[in-house]
Amino acid sequence: MIDLRSDTVTRPSAAMRQAMANAEVGDDVYGEDPTVNALQERVAGLLGKEDALFVASGTMGNQICLRVHTSPGDEVICEAGSHFLHFEGGAMPVLSGIQARTIVGHRGMIEAEQVRTALRANTYYFPRSKVVALENTHNLAGGTVLPLASIQEISGFCQKNRLALHLDGARLWNASIASGVSLETYGQLFDSISICLSKGLGAPAGSVIAGSREFIAEARRVRKQLGGGMRQIGLLAAAGHYAIDTNLSRLAEDHANAREFAEIIASSPDVEIDLENVQTNIIIARLHGDISASQFCQKMQQKGVRISMMDEQTLRAVTHLDVSREQVVEAAHIFLNQLSQ
Ligand code: TLP
To answer: What mean pLDDT comes out for the span 237-243?
Structure first.
């Protein structure tokens, strides 16, 4: 089976498992796991932040950050396709008592001027605008990399208007490799960042949130409230270290493979795909004609390829370290064959 449903489906390699087995561990609720502490310091350093915190998942990372930035009744300004609005089980209003003011972006990006328009006046009956959230790369837009100049403008706007700026950087590694912009350059523009170890980097679990020392102290408290205080998780942090050492630099391969897949399937008139959106490891394609995305996924699976559906017309394929270039090309040809049948 060639599994292109997500880059989350990767399995830890023998060498990663060995690194996990050899990890030095301690009780992380006491702050005594040396491998976790080293990973937190490492990721904080990479993102140019004072401090960082290991969390169970990207969802937990986003939700903790949003909660720390807000109080119930506040509003988050974000792009309409943001992951935390659509794929996190409706957690935001449940956990933080806040609501979203959405803006339809271009390739996943919103502009400072749009944020200005969405900003609430300071009147008692309005919700309070508290935080702006961006997603880089932007999943639903097709793994697009947000333009640095636009992020800088929004960051400046947020500072002037006392708004916190959060980044869902689940795939910021991919954005950095694709754009050549360092993680630190991105990191310094945000008050909080959540970055995942379990997507393209291939670790079995874990994300890291980064911010100021004060922010992370509060985030640690919220993590505990959510039941996310774990004990000897140096085992997982060791996989994170290994993933950064070994799998970060190879992400460009995934990007090249996604490009190849997209170019092959774009030759069909039955599929709509914007090749300019294929900037990293995600391919989003829309089907024309009678077949639904779920039926198409089933047909593909019968031929040995798994892809996912985002809605009844929209398909997603994601490249990752457990699929070779040959497998990706083979999958693209199977996709073309199934379209024409
Ligand atoms: N995304 C998953 C699915 O939930 C769609 C995937 O397969 O892409 N932010 C972004 C941008 C994400 O893509 C994801 C996972 C998350 C946050 C949440 O991460 P986890 O799954 O670790 O909670």
So the answer is: 98
State what percent of residues in the chain have pLDDT above 70.
100
Under 8 Å between Cβ of 283 and 141: no
Give the pLDDT confidence of 53-85 residue by residue, as tens digits.
999 999 999 999 999 999 999 999 999 999 999
Residue extent(s) of CATH 3.40.640.10 domains in the chain: 10-247
Written out in words, the top-level CATH class of the domain with range 10-247 is alpha beta
Q: What is the DSSP string of 188-231?
A: TT-SEEEEESSSTT--SS-EEEEE-HHHHHHHHHHHHHTT---S
d(CA 48, CA 330): 41
Best mutation site among 5, 10, 54, 59 for ligand 1 pocket (most ligand atoms within 8 Å of CB) = 59
For 58, the 3-state DSSP assignment is: helix
Instruction: Give yes or no for residue 137 CB within 6 A of ligand 1.
Output: no
Whether domain 250-339 has CATH 3.40.50.720: no
Q: For ligand 1, is residue 174 a contact (CB within 6 Å)?
A: no
- Within the chain, which residue ranges are assigned CATH 3.90.1150.10? 250-339
Pocket test for ligand 1, best of 3, 83, 92, 281 (most atoms within 8 A of CB): 83
Beta carbons within 8 Å of 121's beta carbon, 6+ residues apart: none
Rg (CA), the chain: 20
Ligand 1 centroid – CA 285 distance (Å): 19
Q: What burial class does residue 144 get, using C-beta atoms within 10 Å of its C-beta: 0-12 exposed, 13-18 middle, 19+ buried? A: buried
Rounded Cα–Cα distance for residues 104 and 117 (Å) = 13
Report the C-alpha gap between 302 and 115 in whole angstroms.
45
**pTM assigned to the model:** 0.98
**Residue the block writes with tokens 């391969």:** 253
